[in-house]
């Protein structure tokens, strides 16, 4: 279920994450069918909104190597 408080525009995500430009986000959105980003996107009318929680999962999936698990203390 989508929580509207987790939705952001392209400009908002770019402002919150300075390592991602608006142009980069728009490129990723344009290619969402092939890069796996589609589940993080909602299109309402002509506007595209990004589900932050799903976007963060997608970003995590882009790691070149999995994060090592911390041993239990």
The run of helices and strands is EHHHEEH
The total count of helices amounts to 4
In total, the number of strands is: 3
Q: Tell me, briefly, the overall form.
A: globular
The radius of gyration computed from the alpha-carbon positions, rounded to a whole number of angstroms, is: 14 Å
Overall number of structural domains:
1
Low-confidence stretches: none
Protein name: DNA-binding protein
Organism: Chelatococcus caeni
Question: How would the blueprint of this fold be written?
Answer:
Elements: E1 7-8, H1 10-16, H2 22-30, H3 32-35, E2 41-44, E3 47-51, H4 52-60
Antiparallel strand pairs: 1-3, 2-3
Question: Can you describe this structure in just a few lines?
Answer:
By secondary structure, this protein is an alpha+beta fold.
Describe the structure.
40% of the residues lie in helices and 15% in strands. The termini are far apart. The chain has 4 helices and 3 strands; from the N terminus they run E-H-H-H-E-E-H. With 73 residues, it is of the alpha+beta class. Strands 1-3-2 form a 3-stranded antiparallel sheet. The protein has one domain (4-61). The longest helix is centred in the middle third of the chain and has 9 residues, at 22-30. This is DNA-binding protein. It comes from Chelatococcus caeni.
């Amino acid at each position: 279920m989508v929580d509207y408080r987790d939705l952001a525009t392209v400009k908002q995500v770019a402002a919150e994450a300075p390592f991602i430009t608006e142009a980069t986000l728009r490129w990723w959105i344009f290619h969402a069918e092939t890069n796996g980003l589609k589940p993080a996107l909602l299109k309402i009318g002509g506007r595209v909104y990004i589900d932050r929680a799903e976007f963060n999962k997608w970003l995590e999936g882009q790691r070149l190597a999995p994060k090592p698990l911390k041993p239990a203390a």
